[in-house]
Amino acid sequence: MVDREQLPAPVEGLVVTHFLTVRDVARSRAFYADVLGGEVVLEENPAIVKVANTWIIMNPGGGPTPDNRTLRCGRPSPATR
Asked: Whole-prediction pTM value?
């Protein structure tokens, strides 16, 4: 569980959040933290990196959930690209 009080947030302005479905969460997290200088807020499930006033949330995707049995989150199949 994430303690929301510990999440860094700007004192003023706005925050932009990007949700990315990625193949390799650790590699993606390292890119945004090490190359772009982001702050890792949560390592996994999902990974969250703060870059300036931007949250980058990374997850490998997955199948349906109990509340939505038809939704799948992942890369598109070659037929739908």
From this structure: 0.72
